[in-house]
Amino acid sequence: MVAVSTREKLKPMVNSGNNAIRIRVRGLGKRYGALEVFRGIDLEAGDHEIVAIVGPSGCGKTTLLRCIDGLLAVDSGEVVVDSERVTSPIAGVAMVFQHFGLFPWKTVYDNVAYGLRMAGISRAEITRRVPHFINLVGLKGFEKAFPYQMSGGMQQRCGLARALAIEPRVLLMDEPFAAVDAQTREILQFELLRIWEQRPTTMLFVTHSIEEAVLMGDRVVVLKGRPSNIHETIAIDLPRPRTRDTLREPRFGELRERVWGTLMSEARQAEFQLGA
Amino acid sequence: MSEHADRLLTLPAAAASASRSRPTPATLRLTAGLAILLLWEIVVRALAPAYVAKPSGVVMAIPHVIVDPVFLNATRITLGAVAQGLAIAIVAGTAIGLLIGRSVVADRMLRHYVNGFYAVPMIVILPLVTLWFGYSDAARLATIVFAALFSIIINVADGARSVPREYLEVANSFRSHRLRMMIEIVLPSSMPYFLAGLRLASGRALIGAVVAEFFAAIGGLGYFILYNSRTYHHNEAFVGVLLLAAFGVGFEIAVNVATRYFLPWYRRDEPAK
Fold it and tell me: What is the pLDDT of residue A212?
């Protein structure tokens, strides 16, 4: 029940999110009819901080992220982004979806431009920004391609470019690489880290991959239980920039085991509850 | 591709005999068509009076009918009215269909009426239409719109209802307004349904035009066919019938071509013919 904040343990060498709190989640609760998904979620993310959220399937990670984006109404508590209370999607927050969410009738260019047009950005600015972000995610030359002509990895690069193009203060990542194959996933993880180094944003990163959570996050938040809440928050004191070498560091292995242990105790508990 | 593989696996002699025993679809189609025409020709020559249309007579009639100003004018009038009526039905039908598909209130208000009107044979409204609009072009146009409108409404509403949730979620997340969401997300996502509705609507529009011309004696291709039939110019009448059939086929082809050109993302698995 106690949400352990370990932010103070962070060493200065790591990304400490030292500036203003960007996202503040207080006592968040959500239910679908009789099913209570989560309860009493308290969560904060600082400027340029990456908070990874892991948990067993069905624990409500994705629902939590949708509540934070304002796509879903909450039943209790509140979400505040930069002192703006979120009740519907707000400006400056962009989401990358597991299902990519590309529009099949739009080309890569038009898909990337979509968010900008909805944000009311001027035509001149759009024609300036879109090619830049297409280059950034490595899709140069595919501007006129339609989603069906591209692999899953390329489609998610496009989804990422669409989110980045609005130059959001906050990026919400909803298991962004869960639908691509393992190799592509690894490539995209390091691409994302590279892009983040170039233009750091506050990021909530929902994943069911422990390794991914440890690799990405400054902190890893473990959701547990039914209804779920934050079981533990683990500080990831791995230096940045994080690269493939990070995976070989002993500290990476330790942290991965730590998160794994936390999740497994949860899994065992769930098994007991089912058996009872 | 599988054809290619077959060829690799089959000896040349066997392949040749296979192609002899199994003619191409085009050959089959042509053979069946010619057989029907031949049967028609024989039956009419053997049993029917001289004025009854037969294939050879229709073919002979084509050259002088298609340059006949009366025929050309009738064609222009009818196809013009069909185009006009379809345009009205497309605009109104799409708007109403989107509304029904995305608004529960509109759906509850209109659904049964739309389905009811769709099922009403268009011919039964003709007496009313002629009372309202007189024996005029307007009466024909109204019949065409009535015939075409509801199939477009029903299909677009189905399409709007089945927009994948993911698209709407993305649009919401990027703070799209409702109207923009309709135009930019719901409408393009419903295009395949719209096209299905348009195919139905085009056929029904043509029927509507001809029915109106038959029963209200308004000049046009339908009236041309009626007039020629009643004056024992059956071969000439059949040239009109052929043109209507050709229009149906032509519209289908035009829709397919337009689909490939404007909606390359849709039906991408189908090879271009």
Answer: 94
ipTM: 0.85
Architecture of the structural domain at B58-262: Orthogonal Bundle (1.10)
In the sheet that holds A219-224, the strands lie side by side as: A93-96, A170-174, A202-206, A50-54, A219-224, A229-235
pTM of the full structure:
0.81
Residue position matching structure tokens 């024992």: B232
The whole domain housing A241 covers 7-92+201-275
| Identity of the residue in A91, A105, A147 whose CB atom sits nearest the CB atom of B175 | A91
The domain that holds A213 is classified in CATH as 3.40.50.300
Question: Strand A84-85 relative to strand A76-81: parallel, antiparallel, unpaired?
Answer: antiparallel
Tokens of B239: 């040239």
Length in residues, chain A: 276
Q: Which residues on adjacent β-strands are paired with residue A95?
A: A172
The encoded tokens of residue A122 equal: 């001027």
- The number of distinct structural domains making up chain A is 1
How near does any CA of chain B get to the CA of A251, in Å? 37
Residue A55 lies in a domain: yes
pLDDT in tens, B16-72: 555 566 788 889 989 999 999 999 999 999 998 888 888 999 999 999 998 999 999
Choose among A183, A139, A184, A181: nearest CA to A160: A139
| Cβ distance of A101 and B188 shorter than 8 Å | no
Residue of A nearest to B264 (CA): A105
* Angstrom distance (rounded) from CA A260 to CA B163: 39
What is the per-residue pLDDT across A31-56, written as a single tens digit (0 to 9) for each? 988 888 889 899 999 999 999 999 88
pLDDT for the residue numbered A229: 86
Q: Give the helix/strand (H/E) hosting A254.
A: helix A250-275
B237, B53 contact by CB (below 8 A): yes
- Which residue ranges make up each domain of chain B? 2-48, 58-262
